[in-house]
Write a structure and sequence with these properties.
Largest sheet: 9 strands, mixed
CATH class of the largest domain: Alpha Beta
Helix content: 25-40%
Shape: globular
Number of domains: 2
CATH topology of the largest domain: Dihydrodipicolinate Reductase, domain 2
Distance between the termini: 42 Å
CATH superfamily of the largest domain: Dihydrodipicolinate Reductase, domain 2
Order of helices and strands: HEHEHHEHEHEHEHEHEEEEEEHHE
Number of strands: 14
Length: 392
């Protein structure tokens, strides 16, 4: 296919470059100074129109050490929590990046929106559907930007999936298989906040499952989920002999593991579409399968990756008919020049400064969260459950 697939991304980048006014700096704070905050600060430091003015973390001294590590000076960090930071009017804050563990996403986002501050909220949106609804109520009341951290959307290959669907080449979509996983990849190198229920709430589902759902749901226009029959397990995470753990930490990590390391579900969507989903932090397989999108005129195969990395695992392929013959059309991989995290930060900054819509709107990710919540609920109850999304 022609290089026109990059047109949308190039125009986005060009528009961003034109709109940068280094004399009008966005005043930003970072809430939660752990591993993912490092990616945020590096991208913010690459922007000429951003000033990082504050940071907070629940662990005393962690925020100060974080900013010192990245050589950022004159940043206020003497706050016990996010609420103290947000109450400091001397900061004249424009925006915050929320990089806390999952269970703190909702309260921190609500506090920031209630304080009249724009929010870039790391994924997952929240842990439960109810939390997501409360965050969106605060967003609606505040009128501020709330963007969810789904940077894979800015990958040109991911955008190509949506272009193929919208072109009509596949016809009417009726079945999707998606997911991803790691053979041994429970994320304990970053501590235990990913694996403890008190901090994470959800495991592989929230960490990488939300991405694989967004890849296909965004491509087909985010139809409303109707029902979910879900399953989740933790056979590997709770095993003290799991070889993915540090040998000296195996017993400790296994005892603390309180989330899912594998999940699967069958989801019915509006429009008569069914979604077959599976995700894994650990499994005795190299991949749970490629992503496929089946339509009445054609089918699209999206190769899996060894570990979810925000793009595709190789050239995509369309299976269709041309002049009465069954043919396959290969879609070459598009090489990105820009870093996805930099594009995520830039798009958020532009939305804040220009008053444009959130790059990844909560109204879409609400459906993503409803599915995650539905899988967890169905797994607990051992039956198919209906998804009911309240009015906001």
């Amino acid at each position: 296919m022609a290089d026109k697939s990059m047109d949308g991304l190039n125009s986005f980048t060009a528009e961003s470059e034109k709109s940068v006014d280094a004399g009008r700096k966005l005043r930003v704070a970072i809430i939660g100074c752990g591993w993912i905050a490092g990616s945020h600060i590096k991208s913010y430091l690459a922007q000429p129109d951003v000033e990082i003015v504050a940071g907070a973390d629940l662990i005393p001294g962690k925020a100060a050490a974080f900013f010192a590590k990245y050589g950022v000076e004159n940043v206020k960090t003497d706050y016990a929590n996010d609420e103290e930071l947000l109450a400091d009017k001397s900061l004249k804050l424009d925006a915050v990046s929320i990089c806390t563990y999952n269970r703190q996403h909702a309260p921190c986002a609500i506090h920031a929106l209630n304080a009249g501050v724009n929010v870039l909220l790391e994924k997952p949106f929240t842990v439960t559907l109810e939390e997501a609804v409360e965050v969106m109520k605060a967003e609606k009341k505040s009128g501020k930007v709330l963007s969810i951290g789904f940077q894979p959307r800015l990958d040109a290959n991911m955008q190509m999936i949506g272009k193929i669907v919208r072109s009509g080449e596949l016809g009417q979509i009726y079945y999707i298989q998606t997911g991803g996983g790691r053979r041994r990849g429970i994320p304990t190198p970053f501590g235990t906040t990913f694996i403890e229920d008190a901090t994470a709430g959800l495991g592989a589902l929230a960490d990488i499952g939300c991405y694989s759902l967004d890849m296909v749901l965004n491509a087909i226009g985010y139809p409303k989920p109707l029902t979910v029959s879900g399953y989740k397990s933790a056979f590997f995470g709770t095993d003290p002999n799991y070889i993915g753990y540090r040998e000296d930490k195996r017993a400790e990590y296994a005892s603390k593991f309180g989330v899912d390391d594998f999940a699967a579900a069958f989801i019915r969507l509006e429009g008569g579409i069914v979604l077959d989903f599976r995700i894994a932090w650990a499994m005795n397989m190299d991949t749970p399968g490629d992503t496929i999108i089946l339509g009445t005129k054609g089918g699209l195969r999206i190769p899996s990756t060894e570990c979810w990395n925000g793009t595709v695992g190789g050239p995509m392929k369309i299976y269709h008919e041309v002049a009465g013959n069954q043919v396959e059309t290969e879609i070459p991989v598009i090489k990105m020049k820009e870093g996805l995290f930099d594009l995520k930060i830039r798009s958020f900054i532009d939305a804040c400064k220009n008053g444009t819509p959130a790059p990844v709107p909560s109204s879409q990710i609400l459906y993503n969260q409803a599915i995650l919540d539905g899988i967890a609920r169905s797994a607990r109850e051992g039956r198919e459950v209906e998804i009911k999304i309240p009015e906001i």
